[in-house]
Amino acid sequence: MMKLLFATALVALSTAGLAQTRNQAAGAGSAGVTARLQSQGYATVQNLRRGPDGKWVGQATRHGVPVTVTSDPAGTTIPR
Q1: In terms of residue numbers, what domain contains 64?
Q2: Number of domains in the chain
Q3: 7 phi and psi angles, rounded to 5 deg
Q4: Is the pLDDT confidence value at 55 over 90?
Q5: What's the CA gap between 47 and 73, in Å, rounded?
Q6: Which pLDDT belongs to residue 27?
Q7: Which CATH number fits the domain that encloses residue 71?
Q8: Can you tell me the distance from the alpha carbon of 63 to that of 74, in angstroms, rounded to the nearest whole number?
Q9: Distance, CA of 12 to CA of 67 (rounded, Å)
């Protein structure tokens, strides 16, 4: 019985930790995406908006050239 309670507690704690990590990533919002884009060499990041698919789209400059960027939840950035 004690082992079952312990196992249940471990599952509950690990599930709560995973949910918190996901919420922190999602909660970073446009500020988190802006910081990520800046760390990838983009500047003047603006007009970020999140689509229904979870991808962020906005405008930025890289090496002085204006681009439209798309950033997915995994951190992949696609300039257009």
Answers
A1: 2-79
A2: 1
A3: -60, -40
A4: yes
A5: 17
A6: 45
A7: 3.10.450
A8: 24
A9: 44
